[in-house]
Amino acid sequence: MTNIKTELTAHFSPQKSFYRKAYTQQADDGAIMLYSYDTLVAIWKDGDINFITGNDWHLTRTTVKHLNEFVSQMLGYSRSLGVADYRKLQKLANDQKLSLNNL
Length: 103
What we know:
alpha+beta, 6 strands, globular, DUF8033 domain-containing protein, DUF8033
């Protein structure tokens, strides 16, 4: 796995910075992983996203901001979901991939 971690920067969010609380890491197979507070929360690969948020306490408002920015960057346009939306997706996905285009 490529060990290069890149700080998640705000392109779609009105925030100026995520203050080094979120970063991405790219794997050799092209998968891009999102970490929020050093916890893996999502993996994007080939247009699909797998939310790795096994516990509800991972879905804080701040982590949801990180997820929204990550999803928006992967889609190429702004997409904003709330905590309740991600909880529903988490239950629906049950560790299965979801197409970003269905969000």
